[in-house]
Amino acid sequence: MVVKHAAGRDYPRSYAELRAWFDEDWKCLDYLDWLRWPEGFVCPHCASVVGWRLADSRWKCGGCDRKVSATAGTIFDKTRTPLTVWFATAWRMVGDKVGVSATQTSHGLRCQAAACWVCWFQAVASPLGVSVLRQPCRM
Ligand SMILES: [Zn+2]
Predict the structure, then answer these.
(1) Ligand 1 centre from 30 Cα, in Å?
(2) Is residue 76 in a domain?
(3) Ligand 1: distance of its center to the CA of 61 in Å?
(4) Residue 67: which domain range?
(5) Which helix (H) or strand (E) holds 81?
(6) In a domain, 2, yes or no
(7) In tens digits, what is the pLDDT along the chain, a chain of 139 residues?
(8) Is residue 9 situated within a structural domain?
(9) Helix/strand/coil for 53
């Protein structure tokens, strides 16, 4: 099933909105959770869908008892840079004319440029890295 991303619901419409949405790290982690597990938590170790959120924003798997973070295996794993800074940087990279522009990204993904922040971010936030970009865009 193809899910259509909507501006203002699934991704910010502007840099100002990005700053308002992601002004604290836990909000960024919530978003990464959604990107990584849009249908709900799935343990990367045992594939259990039973898990619960811990106070430190990680998940505890009900199948194997391991603690899992949405950032595990991604470029955000064990970073000392606040996620709020990463998010702002990602926004500027995708939107910046000298960086990886949304238009350039959309050509590779065959989706609408306006939503490519979601696709690009999903790719960098995935433990699979850019290989996610080879999957059909959810636009
Ligand atoms: Zn598990």
Answers:
(1) 19
(2) yes
(3) 5
(4) 15-134
(5) none
(6) no
(7) 556 677 788 888 888 999 999 999 999 999 988 888 888 999 989 999 999 999 988 999 999 999 999 888 787 888 888 999 888 888 877 765 444 444 444 444 444 444 456 666 666 666 655 444 444 444 4
(8) no
(9) strand
CA of 103 to the centre of ligand 1 (A): 38
Query: Which residues, chain by chain, have CB under 5 Å from ion ligand 1?
Result: 43, 45-46, 48, 61, 63-64
Quick check: pTM over 0.85?
no
CA distance 21 to 71: 19
Buried b (16+ CB within 10 A) or exposed e, 107-133: eebebebbbbbbbbbbbbbbeeeeebb
Q: How far is the CA of 62 from the centre of ligand 1 (A)?
A: 6
The answer to the question of residue 88 being in a domain is: yes
Instruction: State the distance from the centre of ligand 1 to the C-alpha of 39, rounded, in angstroms.
Output: 16
Span from the CA of 59 to the centroid of ligand 1 (angstroms): 10
Q: How far is the CA of 52 from the centre of ligand 1 (A)?
A: 11
Domain count, the chain: 1
Give the pair of three-digit tokens for residue 81.
């840079």
Look-up of token digits 């050509």: 107
